[in-house]
Amino acid sequence: MGLRRRKMKDLIFIAEKINPPLLKKLEETKLCEMFIDETLWQRQEELIGKVKDATIIVAKTLTQITKDVIEAAPGLKLIARDGIGLENVDVDTATAKGIPITMPMGANAVTVAEFAVGLTLSLLRQIVFSHVPLKTTGEWQRFKFFGKTTELYGKTVGIVGLGAIGYQTARRLQGFGVKILGYDPYVGKNRALEVGCEMTNLQELLAQSDVVILHAPQTAETTGMIGEAELKLMKNTAYIVNVARAPLIQHEALYKALSEKWIAGAALDVFHKEPINPDDPLLQLDNVIVTPHHAGGSIESTQRMAEYTFEDIVRALKGEPVLHYVNIPMLRK
């Protein structure tokens, strides 16, 4: 999509592909002038030069909203994260300058939870691994898998991060007859008990679980939280599912654990570099399921996220407090 401009007072600035329902709402309602260049996120210096007139920046995960970007836009009223996570936004600088950051929290919780359970079933029952040879070469590998896959029923599933998404994942797992362990230092025991989750420490969760599902946000505290030592705590029959953020797991440690069979396999929807490099060694492994970071993108969740974000954009343009803020509710004068 090329660059488009409409001459009005305020400016919505978009430097990457965003949620289609949100873009449609913005284009149809013509709230104000719009700058759209979906490849600009790749050229940071050029982005800094062009953001100066922005009133609102709308971004997913690729646009790096650094201190330099924020300071280059003196009229900035809102940073609207079109998705979940703040690893690409300088929250401290935005807050210090009195700029609200919004995020459609909870809008994709059910969607990601269902995806995580789906990946879990795909790993345990080897669904993708048996599908690929049959689909691509017609190879009938029935007895490669027959009697060699395992049920989810009766297993122990560990959930790292029991926020909105982790909570919804636990709710769905209850119907499978599993034991659910949880690790989240910011979630109380009573909240966990609502979904049949027994809270424990990270080391015990890793050691006891047959499947570990990551739902924690990427922060300074969680980055690199799963390394060689942690992976070696896991059973050699266990699987890890990451639908959160790639840097939670140390890349080289994960590759080593998978290639040397410390663990049985992994399902990954997120990567250290996105789009993933086609030469990434993880893609060469036969015990890894990979998907292109779309766990949170169902028809229903993208519509909900669009509604939440659009509402906050309208409110910010009117000078009203936003609803889905993560730092402050409105522009501080």
From TrEMBL:
Q: Which domain of life is it from?
A: Bacteria
Q: Which UniProt keywords apply?
A: Amino-acid biosynthesis, NAD, Oxidoreductase
Name the Gene Ontology biological process terms: amino acid biosynthetic process
The name on file for this protein is Hydroxyacid dehydrogenase
> Which protein family is it in?
Belongs to the D-isomer specific 2-hydroxyacid dehydrogenase family.
Q: Where is the D-isomer specific 2-hydroxyacid dehydrogenase catalytic domain?
A: 13-327
**One function term, GO molecular function aspect:** NAD binding
- Which residue range or ranges hold the D-isomer specific 2-hydroxyacid dehydrogenase NAD-binding domain? 118-295
Query: InterPro entries, per this entry?
Result: D-2-hydroxyacid_DH (IPR050857), D-isomer_2_OHA_DH_cat_dom (IPR006139), D-isomer_DH_CS (IPR029753), D-isomer_DH_CS1 (IPR029752), D-isomer_DH_NAD-bd (IPR006140), NAD(P)-bd_dom_sf (IPR036291)
Q: Which residues form a coiled coil?
A: none
